[in-house]
Amino acid sequence: MTSEAPATAGLVARIHTLIGSLSPAEARVAGLIAENPAGTSQHTIEELAQQASTSTATVVRTAKRLGYQGYPQLRLALAAQPTGQTRESSLAADVRDEDNPYTVLQKLTAFERDAIRATSELADPAVLDTVVGLLTGARRIDVYGIGASGLVAMDLSQKLQRIGLYCMAHTEHDAGMVSAVLLGSDDVAIGISHTGTTPGTLLPLRRARNSGATAVALTGASGSALAQDAEHTLLTAGRELGFRSAAMASRTSQLLIVDCLFVAVAQRTASARDALMKTHDAISSAGDRRQMRKEDQ
Question: PANTHER family under this entry (predicted)?
Answer without folding.
Answer: GLUCOKINASE, HTH-TYPE TRANSCRIPTIONAL REGULATOR HEXR-RELATED
